[in-house]
Amino acid sequence: MTTPRTPLSNLTADYRARDAAHHIHPFSDMKALNAEGSRVIVRGEGSWIWDSDGNRILDGMAGLWCVNIGHGRPEIAAAIQRQMAEISFYNTFFKTTHPPAIALAETLARLTPPQFNHVFFVDSGSEANDTVIRMVRHYWATRGKPEKSILIARHNAYHGSTMGGGSLGGMKPMHEQGGLPIPGIHHIAQPYWFGEGGDASPEEFGIIAARALETAIDEIGEDKIGAFVAEPIQGAGGVIIPPSTYWPEIARILKGRDILLVADEVITGFGRTGNWFGSETFGIEADLMPIAKGLSSGYLPIGGVMVSDKVAEVIIGPGGDFNHGFTYSAHPVAAAAALENLRIIEDEKLVERVRDDIGPYLQKKWLALGDHPLVGEARMTGMMGALELVPKKPSRTVVFPDVGKVGTIARDFSFRNGLVMRAVRDSLILSPPLTLSHEEADHLIAVASKTLDDTHAELKRLGLA
Question: What is the model's pTM?
Answer without folding.
Answer: 0.95
